[in-house]
Q: What sequence folds into this?
């Protein structure tokens, strides 16, 4: 028996279409509905046979779904909640895949009937590509999924939702929503903001220099351009909705950058070397955890390293 | 017949030891001397049999070499020039692998006899690892090497030096030294400075948050930590010696970051989306050039893309 009778995914981009593929590959739902406001995206989703039903009508598409997943930019959540609220099945779980949790869910919950169980999730998985063609079923395998239930959330619903993400291949972590937004602010939102900024700074260079910057990008710049190729609308919404945490972290970052700038201007090699030496320590911790953020079985066997 | 009778490399770290391996793998010299000030590094180099002669005496080691390569942090160049200047063979080529060119060579040339041909190079290749064990012969293959001769430099010597780098597998580009420092300032030095800064900002977080930042680093932070694991002394010297270009670029970057910060604070989604949309364009150019910064044969065949 499948975990859910009917799952409705709203948004058929990279994450939504990958989730549709993962649900089918792992037989997680008896019926799968994929909803997208864009006619072009719906057409693509039909061509790719991503779901049993594909529609641009969200209110209609969520009817009788026992799991609804929002996979659109977080700035759309409130409007979608207004549209689907009245059609949601009592007892259904409403979750999402967004990179910001606290403010977004405060807006969204106003429009969701109390009979629906709202449980925010953040599967930490993605690529710099967008659209239904960019998705693949294995996107979630061995990645972390952070679930941020309220303290009074229904435990059986949490268990059902975590089983869903586990069935997609993910590892689960429960976290307070505000804390999630702070942690992701530094691991994800600030890196993206810096990458977008440096690529913008490069784009403003004179044409001949810009050509050379592109040519010699292997020396460090290239990795930033990969991050800065991420979906602009999704990231616009992240910064608009995680404003407080991002501004707080950006403030700390700017202070640290200003201190380095000053030491470069003054020729203070001791300070530079001291700051630069800390990088290796953090990297060592990260390498010990492995690319997915937890020790691999081999690494656990030699945990005395 | 080998390209050079004797090559002396000063510095047996990642680049110097990789170069030693490449020289041997490609039969580029009749004799190879590897020089390092550190006794430990010399011992390692002996264990790894990296050269015909391994010594900590630079003045002695460069005698009769027709190519001398400086592969130490750029801050050491002037002192090394003082030590080796009197021992250098007339007609020898003196080059380097440093990431800064203009100021460094002004300092160095004061101590080099005019009979020696000074030709700065910058092989754009490396990893975040350091030391003689980290090196490998293929490090330079299909990478760019920027050579920055003065306008009046000896053309036959330039040709000999470019043949050397080509024999290591590199592609050559000639460039003005000051222009090199500006281009590398944005493609390499600024990305490293930002990576060191964000990792430092993360290191200052409370312990529990820091643990989570490490755990969820896959969401963007991880790539920065790889760059920030690069050799602290080498990078200290880069920033001390490319001060003007780095401060100029940092100024532009900070202005752009401040504009984004302001638009986050004001909730100006139009501005954010506009800036973020530029990232994809630059990335497209870089992907078209391929990871090494030039089109692969397959890509050239479909250059009408």
A:
């Amino acid at each position: 028996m499948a975990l859910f009778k009917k799952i409705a995914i709203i948004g058929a981009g990279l994450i939504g279409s990958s989730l549709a593929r993962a649900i089918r590959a792992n037989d997680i739902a008896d019926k799968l509905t994929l909803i997208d406001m864009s006619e072009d995206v719906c057409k693509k989703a039909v061509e790719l046979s991503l779901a049993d039903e594909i529609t641009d009508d969200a209110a209609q598409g969520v009817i009788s779904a026992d799991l609804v997943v929002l996979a659109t930019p977080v700035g759309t959540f409130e409007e979608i909640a207004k549209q689907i609220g009245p059609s949601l099945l009592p007892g259904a779980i409403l979750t999402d895949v967004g990179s910001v949790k606290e403010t977004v869910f405060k807006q969204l919950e106003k429009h969701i009937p109390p009979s629906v169980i709202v449980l925010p999730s953040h599967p930490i998985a993605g690529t710099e590509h967008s659209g239904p063609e960019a998705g693949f079923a294995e996107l979630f395998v061995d990645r972390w999924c952070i679930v941020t239930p309220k303290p009074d959330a229904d435990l059986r619903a949490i268990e059902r939702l975590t089983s869903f993400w586990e069935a997609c291949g993910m590892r689960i972590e429960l976290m307070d929503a505000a804390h999630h937004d702070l942690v992701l602010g530094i691991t994800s939102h600030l890196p993206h903001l810096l990458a977008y900024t440096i690529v913008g700074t490069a784009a403003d260079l004179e044409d001949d220099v810009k050509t050379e910057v592109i040519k010699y990008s292997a020396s460090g710049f290239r990795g930033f351009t990969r991050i800065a190729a991420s979906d602009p609308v999704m990231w616009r919404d992240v910064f608009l909705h995680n404003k407080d945490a991002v501004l707080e972290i950006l403030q700390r970052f700017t202070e640290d950058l200003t201190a380095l700038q000053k030491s470069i201007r003054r020729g203070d090699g001791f300070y530079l070397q001291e700051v630069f030496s800390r990088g290796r320590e953090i990297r060592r911790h990260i390498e010990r955890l492995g690319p997915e953020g937890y020790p691999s079985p081999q690494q656990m066997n030699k945990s005395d390293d």
Summary: Residues 297-305 of chain B have pLDDT under 50 and may be disordered. Chain B touches chain A through 92 residues (CB under 8 Å). The domain at 179-290 of chain B is CATH 1.10.3660.10 (6-phosphogluconate dehydrogenase C-terminal fold). Residues 156 and 162 of chain B are 10 Å apart (CA to CA).
